[in-house]
Structures are given as structure tokens and as C-alpha cells.
User: Fold this.
Amino acid sequence: MVKITYVEHDGTPHQVDVAVGRSVMRGAVENDIPGILADCGGACACGTCRVFVAAEFRSVVGGPNAIEEATLEIDDDPRPGKRLACQIPVTGALDGLIVHMPERQF
Amino acid sequence: MQLISDLELSHLAVDEDWFGADPIPQFQVARARHPWLATSPLGYVVTEYKSIRELFLLDSRMRGNYDEMVEMMGAGGTPWGDFQLGHILNARGDRHKRLRDILAPAFTPRQANRHRQVMRDVMVELLDEWVPKRTFDFEEFASWYPIKVICRMIGSPEEAIPELRDSLEALGRSVSVDLRVLDAMQKGTERLDAYCSELIETRLAMHEPGDDNDLLDVLLAIYVKHELSHAELVNLLTFLLVAGYDTSKNVMTMMMFEMCRNPAVYARCAADLAYCAQAVDEAMRLHGTNNMMRIVMEDIEHRDVLIPAGTTLFFPWAIIGQDPGAIDDPGVFIPDRPNQIRHLGFGLGAHMCLGQHIARAQIAEGIHLIAQRITKPATTGPRGWRPFPGVWGMEGLPIEFVPA
Assistant:
């Protein structure tokens, strides 16, 4: 288990334990965290699990692959660290991860 | 824990022709009896927005009901039956993932944005032709839009469009489990098979490695690498035509119906494309077009109810956005409402609509231009309704208007 903090758009934090091997999206959905929809269930298709990875974790998390990058163009929010939570596998190195949610997912 | 079959539930006659004309009151009655379930001739209907979202967290325990549908229609071994059983919505596990991965690059938001100019060009041409009429059937008008856009996206000749449209109209009833239209669906499938096979053969003759001019090039590049069989390629192309046609047309028609009742919203859609995109989502919350069934493969427990393997669940995606438990003023058309919920018009889970980003862009671009050229639209209402199961929608929407 690692600790992940999901921060709502209004600043409300939710810290939960997520099992290694799950995705950051699953960690949110299975803990009823508001602000992540994940309509396609993790298929990198709907773009409704967008998060902004906190600056100190961006190098560990890494950047999106080609399909994810094309899907992230669902909006034009230019802030750095934008990722689809379904495409971030949870590893031990992500203990303490902080992700921020956008104002809306659609 | 109660067994689903032991619950006392209301019955929804979703398969009756009259049901599609006004389903919302029927759902209200059902919810008064049980908060999230009702029975129907096609399976248990999940009547609550929140329950649908929660059940789809267990998507991998359910599958589509296409095998059963083909059997109910007595259509095994026929062109339509083979198409139904072979398409991507009926694929599961590794095969589904392989097909989805092949198609995904062609359906991202980036690709949808890349096609926006084609969408605008087609709509301007249609408006130039139709606006001088001052009155027409909006559904018929709207039907030419997605088919022309798709044909340009796959480089199909324009002269094929009228016959294609007739075939797609027939195939639009594929999920309605209606024996009355089986013959038309068989003929439509045969025509679409022949059309897609010819299109593939013609293009293959001139296809060069690295060609990336349109969607067909993307598929052919995969085919020539032997990652897709010829039958799969024909089926995929046919499916893309079928899936992209009447869903977009029906949403646009129902959206125009709402716009006729909300002139201020319509005027803003003419002026503001971003607002228009919100209006598309709100229109789909009020009236989506798809109502689909799933078969439970492993027992599911939900809110102290046991849903055993083998149970058929009916998901009314099209109207579930009007669940009063999920949103205030559910029947009112307010595109920029503050506490909007995500409509389920594109479904949920691994089989969620692949073309959703193209559909949203296409409808928003289309309505934005329509609202600029067709002013003060008025309607006497729909001429009829399509069956509620499967691809639902209005059957004819006469409008009168003032050309801009």
C-alpha cells in the first residue's frame, strides 16, 4: 500500500491507501474520491480521469504515451503535469503522491 | 441479501411501440416501487443513475447480449447475424483489447479536432442546399450530415451516399430485437459488406506504406501488417458507419426539438461554440440515443441484492440523466447548469463509445452553424418514435424557420 493524496479543485484533500499494482484512477474510484469519473474504466478513451501531478512527483510518474497525449487534448488546460490517472500505475516509488483534480472532467 | 427475482418490482414495457414516446413517467412510477430496479420483457431495468455508475465498476463481470439477440431473431448464420456477432461491441477480453488498441489512435480528441473543418464544410454545403426550403423534416436533413462526414473521413465517393444511408437506416434497428425489420437489416448488411469490400479493394490498389490521409489509411496500414484479417476489416468499417450514423442524427434531432422550446439557448449556440458544446452534453443528458443490455457473467451483489450470473440487465443510458435523484430540475434544458452530471449517452466501461469525441465535435460544430442559418425554428413535434431498446430517437421532426 502507498499513500496518495487527491486534492479537489476547491483544495479539499483526500488521503487514501492504494495497493501497488492498481492505477491512480482505481485508487480514487474505489475510495469514492469525488472529481474522478473514469467513465471508460481505464481504457484511455474518455479523458474523464484527468489529474495534475504535483511538481515533486512528475519525474517519478513520467509523461504520457502517444495515445494518452492525444486524449489529453480533450481540453486546452495548459498547466503542467497533466495526466490521465488511469494510465499511472501505482508503484512503491509513488508513496506520498499528490495529484490535483481539474474543476470538471467533462 | 435478497435475490433479485424475489424483489417486488414495477414492470416497464420497454419493448412496446408506445413506450418510446414518453418513457419518463413510466420510470417515475417504477422508482416509487423500488429505488433502482424494475422488470421488463428484456431483462431487469436499472432505473437509478448512481446504481448504473456503481454497477459499471464491475463491468468485467458483464458482457453484451448480442449472442442472445441473434438467437432471438433466429438469425444465426445470416449476414446480419454474422455482423452482430463479429463486431467490436460483442468482442471480449484480449480480442476486444486488440481491436480497441488498433482503433484508438484514430478516435482521440486530437483526431476529432483534426476533422472539424470537414464537419464545418459538410454542414455549410447542406445548409446551402436545405435552408431555402424554409420548412423540412429536420431528422431527414440531419441524417445527411454524419454520413457525409464519415464518407469524407474514409475517402468514399459521394455517389455512394444515398444507398449507404438507406442501409444504415435499416441497421439502426439492429439492437431493437424487432423481427419486423430483420429482412431490411439483412439486405442492408449485404449492401454495406459489398460497399466496404469494394472501398477496401480500390484503396488497397493505391495504398503506399506511410499513407495517413484519412481513417481508412490508418486501418489499411494495420491490415497490410496482417494484424487485422480481411473479415475483421470489413466488419470494423461497417461498424464504424453504423455506429456513427443514427446516433449523431438522433441526438441532433432531439436537440433541435429542445432548441425549438428554448430560443434563448438556441441563440447562444449560434454565437458561442463552447456554449454549444455544453448544450450538446445537456441535450444528451435529457435524451441520449442508446439503451443497451448486458448479461451478468459472475454473481454481482449490489445494495444487498444478489444478481446471479445469467441475469440480463437493461441499462437505459438514453434517459437516465433525468433521474431526479441525480440532478435538480431533471427535465429542464439548462446547458450551463452549475451542478451538471455527466450524461451516460456514450455508455460506460470498456465498450464505451469509441467515436464519442468525434460525435461531440461533429454535433457541436453542426448545431453551431445550423443556429446561425436557421432562425426562429418552430415544430409541431415528432412524427413518431423509434423503439426504446437499442438506438432510440424521434422518427421525423418537421420544422419551420426563417432563413438568416
User: Anything to note?
Assistant: The interface with chain B takes residues 29-30, 37, 39-41, 43-48, 66-67, 70-74, 104-106 of chain A (CB under 8 Å).
